[in-house]
Amino acid sequence: xxxxxxxxxxxxxxxxxxxxxxxxxxxxxxxxxxxxxxxxxxxxxxxxxxxxxxxxxxxxxxxxxxxxxxxxxxxxxxxxxxxxxxxxxxxxxxxxxxxxxxxxxxxxxxxxxxxxxxxxxxxxxxxxxxxxxxxxxxxxxxxxxxxxxxxxxxxxxxxxxxxxxxxxxxxxxxxxxxxxxxxxxxxxxxxxxxxxxxxxxxxxxxxxxxxxxxxxxxxxxxxxxxxxxxxxxxxxxxxxxxxxxxxxxxxxxxxxxxxxxxxxxxxxxxxxxxxxxxxxxxxxxxxxxxxxxxxxxxxxxxxxxxxxxxxxxxxxxxxxxxxxxxxxxxxxxxxxxxxxxxxxxxxxxxxxxxxxxxxxxxxxxxxxxxxxxxxxxxxxxxxxxxxxxxxxxxxxxxxxxxxxxxxxxxxxxxxxxxxxxxxxxxxxxxxxxxxxxxxxxxxxxxxxxxxxxxxxxxxxxxxxxxxxxxxxxxxxxxxxxxxxxxxxxxxxxxxxxxxxxxxxxxxxxxxxxxxxxxxxxxxxxxxxxxxxxxxxxxxxxxxxxxxxxxxxxxxxxxxxxxxxxxxxxxxxxxxxxxxxxxxxxxxxxxxxxxxxxxxxxxxxxxxxxxxxxxxxxxxxxxxxxx
Length: 626
Ligand code: C2E
Ligand code: CA
Ligand code: CA
Description:
Layout: E1 2-5, H1 10-18, H2 30-43, H3 47-63, E2 67-72, E3 77-81, H4 87-93, H5 98-102, H6 104-118, E4 122-128, E5 144-153, E6 159-168, H7 171-191, H8 201-217, E7 221-229, H9 232-239, H10 241-256, E8 264-269, E9 272-280, H11 283-295, E10 301-303, E11 306-308, E12 312-319, H12 326-342, E13 348-350, H13 354-374, E14 379-387, E15 393-404, E16 408-410, H14 412-421, H15 425-445, E17 452-456, H16 459-464, H17 467-477, E18 484-489, H18 490-493, H19 498-509, E19 513-519, H20 526-529, E20 536-539, H21 541-544, H22 554-570, E21 573-576, H23 582-591, E22 595-597, H24 607-617, H25 621-625
Parallel strand pairs: 1-4, 12-13, 15-17, 17-18, 18-19, 19-20, 20-21, 21-22
Antiparallel strand pairs: 2-3, 2-6, 4-5, 5-6, 7-9, 7-12, 8-9, 10-11, 14-15, 14-22, 15-16
Helix pairs in contact: 1-6, 2-3, 9-10, 12-13, 15-17
């Protein structure tokens, strides 16, 4: 029979409330005890074995956060076990009966409860410190207990004693347990990257810091491989962040195949992965691993139903050669990785000391550039594009200019790639376009109403497809898109497909013109570009420069002439870039080039000078038309 006393009966209450200073005991599972007891008793029945089992039980109870009390058949306490139970507590109980411990009145009630248990009941009651004083030795955090009192029996059924189990039901314990779980979760998150499940940066640094002295002791070395995906931004930009996440997970899984038992592979941030190769004995081992990491990208990744090709750049730093601390190694590997990125040939590079200086310079440059973009301190220079034949200015190319507070005038060939890398290119491009359009609006207002402006659109930006933004920018300045030519480099157009082509069509539907910039350098063919809605081809400077006289420039002339012929067949306008001499102009004129741009006609100048130049040489559209 099971008696469940959820609110204790008056005599139990009396018992409990008169217990002073005594404490209790928390919980384990009584069933385990009983089962253990029964098993031992039935198996052997021998006292020695029973004693051993008692000891085993005690050690078991001690390992689980719970407490049990045991009496013999005469209700003499045999033991009290639990985490909050001190040896003194135990000696206060052991060998005594309840009246000796709790006093006659409470003791008697206790003995009566014990007798009910011995008679076969499972006696249960809930104790709460809010209404009753503590019973057995319990920690201060225990505010309520669920008590069970039951008889234990030998194999022949005779009662051998009582066992009492107190399960801690304190709300505080629940809060603690919840906090414990939260802490464990936080610890997991601190040590693991939730996206890929790889080690976190914190764990990697910790392991590295542990591995360094160990490997040093063993006379071995550590190679740190820092791997960054190439053009990962474009994946996010064109396929969305889910696809980006999927790619990161796929990359993590692939890299994990190169993680040795002593190694740690982690995702440091975004698309940066680090493999700490621990315990190497030669540089060759590090080189082989770097090569393997790079090679593992030869095979494409399956992402969102697409077969995605992706490459990575790896920087390698060695302990103790390049740095002596985890952080130092990371910095060195980062510098080497950037060097691998900017290099044309090698996809992995080992650290060299000069790289550190480059890194800090690059960081400073990026910070200054960010400030310049935020403060709208990027200037725009304008270079005229003139029509063949009459030399009339038909357009200006807007070129970004930046004066760094520490490095002076920085060429766009330097700061544009920085802006792309650190995510500033959108804002920088917008800055340039807004200024260029406002300037064009001024030129239009002064009568040059069919003048166009050509702006360089970063391929990264373009592929992200913020068309509405491009349209809005023109609207802000009150410029019709037909007066705007978006220059996109040939190399960026080489692998545009599906959605990007649609995007280009949409741009042209809005009236924008699209020019292929630096044509001839991207190894594409006009036949390939013909599927794109382009209308202008700008032949790269390197083919124009010496195209005229130099006998060695035969190839250049072939490029120029082929470009002109094919462009005309496809209905494109041709512009020669980098025209510096009169004889080049003469040659290009004979070859049929439509327009020129270059120092021969004018260098990029300030907006004011560009307007002045128009006044001097240009003919207002309405005058030309009339
Ligand atoms: P690009 O679009 O090919 O620009 C033409 C570059 O050739 C300009 O260099 C211009 O100053 C230079 N140039 C023009 N005529 C001659 C000449 O006769 N001889 C020689 N030797 N050079 C000539 P710049 O201004 O240094 O710009 C370099 C590149 O930076 C540009 O090449 C363009 O790709 C990029 N860039 C400039 N401004 C922007 C911008 O606002 N956004 C983006 N995304 N890229 C930009
Ligand atoms: Ca350009
Ligand atoms: Ca160009």
